[in-house]
Write a structure and sequence with these properties.
Putative efflux pump membrane fusion protein; 297 residues; four-stranded antiparallel β-sheet; MFP_Cation_Efflux; disordered N terminus; signal; six-stranded antiparallel barrel; alpha+beta; transport
C-alpha cells in the first residue's frame, strides 16, 4: 500500500504540474490587447484628378502618355493658339500706345508756358497804367485777364487728360493680362504631382471648354477603407496609428499611417460603420484596390 500511495501521489503531482503549466501558457496567450483588426480592408486613391481644358479649341499636341510621372504645372495638352497669340500682340500694341499717351505732357508744358506769358502781359499792362494812366484800357485789361484764366484752365485740362491717359494705360495693361491668360489657357497643365492614368484626347480633336482630357493619380499617400462595429467604436479612433499589410505580403512590407475618418452612419442591419486611414506609400509599391489586413494599434 505505501508503494501504491507513493505512485498515486507522484501521478497527482505530475498532473497538477501539467495543468498549472497549461494555465500559465493560456494566460500568456490571452494577454489583453486594444488592437483592432480589420481583415477585409482595401486601398483606394486619395488623389484622382481629371484635368480639364478651360477653353474650347483644336488639340495640336498631346505631350504625355499613360504611366508618365508629372509635376505640378507640367504641360499635358496644347491647343492651337494662333488667334490667342494675335490677340496678345494687339493688346500689347494698345498698351504701348496708351503708355506713350500717358507720358506725353506736351500740352501741360505748353499751357504752363502760356500762363507765364499771359501773367507777364498782365503785369506789364498794370505797370504801364501806373506810369501812364489809361495806357491800357479797362477792356484790354479784361481781355488779358481772360487769357490768363484760359491758360490756367488749360493747365487743369492738360493734367486731367494725363490722368485719363494713365487710367487708359492701366486698362490696356489689364487687357494684356487677360490676353496672356487666354493664351496660357491653350496649354493645359497638371495642377498636381502624380502619374498619368488616362489620356482621353488626340491631336486634331476639337474639345469644348470643360472637357476632361487627362486623369492624374497619386499613390502616395493612399486611403485604406474598412468596416468596424459602430456600436463599439467611433470617432475616438481618429488619429490612432494603423498598419496595413497587403494580402500575401509579409509584415515587413506593411504600410503605416493614421485613422483619418470614422463615419457616424451605422448600417441599420449590421451596425457597421465605414473607417478610413491614410497611409504612406512612398515608393508606390501598393496600388489602388489592393486588399489586405488593417490593424488599428
Amino acid at each position: 500500500m505505501p508503494k501504491t500511495n507513493l505512485v498515486l501521489a507522484g501521478l497527482t503531482f505530475a498532473l497538477l504540474s501539467l495543468s498549472s503549466g497549461q494555465q500559465v501558457t493560456a494566460q500568456a496567450d490571452a494577454s489583453p490587447s486594444d488592437a483592432l483588426v480589420i481583415e477585409e480592408a482595401q486601398t483606394s486613391l486619395i488623389q484622382n484628378v481629371f484635368i480639364a481644358t478651360p477653353v474650347s479649341g483644336v488639340v495640336s499636341a498631346v505631350e504625355v502618355q499613360e504611366g508618365d510621372r508629372v509635376q505640378a504645372d507640367t504641360s499635358l495638352v496644347t491647343l492651337e493658339n494662333d488667334l490667342a497669340e494675335k490677340e496678345l500682340v494687339s493688346a500689347r500694341a494698345g498698351l504701348d500706345a496708351a503708355r506713350l499717351e500717358s507720358d506725353n505732357d506736351v500740352n501741360l508744358r505748353f499751357a504752363q508756358r502760356t500762363l507765364q506769358v499771359r501773367e507777364h502781359e498782365m503785369k506789364q499792362s498794370r505797370l504801364a497804367n501806373e506810369t501812364y494812366a489809361g495806357a491800357v484800357s479797362d477792356f484790354e485789361l479784361e481781355e488779358i485777364r481772360l487769357k490768363v484764366d484760359q491758360a490756367a484752365l488749360a493747365i487743369e485740362q492738360a493734367r486731367h487728360d494725363l490722368m485719363i491717359a494713365a487710367a487708359a494705360a492701366v486698362e490696356k495693361q489689364a487687357a494684356v493680362s487677360i490676353a496672356q491668360t487666354r493664351l496660357d489657357q491653350h496649354s493645359v497643365a497638371s495642377r498636381v504631382e502624380g502619374t498619368v492614368a488616362e489620356v482621353d484626347v488626340q491631336p486634331g480633336q476639337w474639345v469644348e471648354a470643360g472637357a476632361k482630357l487627362v486623369r492624374v493619380i497619386s499613390l502616395d499617400p493612399l486611403r485604406v477603407e474598412g468596416f468596424i462595429d459602430g456600436r463599439k467604436h467611433g470617432p475616438q479612433l481618429i488619429g490612432r496609428n494603423v498598419r496595413f499589410t497587403p494580402a500575401g505580403a509579409s509584415e515587413d512590407e506593411s504600410l503605416t499611417g493614421r485613422i483619418s475618418f470614422v463615419s457616424r452612419e451605422l448600417h441599420p442591419v449590421t451596425g457597421q460603420v465605414r473607417l478610413w486611414a491614410t497611409v504612406d506609400n512612398p515608393d508606390g509599391r501598393v496600388g489602388s484596390g489592393t486588399p489586405g489586413r488593417l490593424v488599428v494599434e
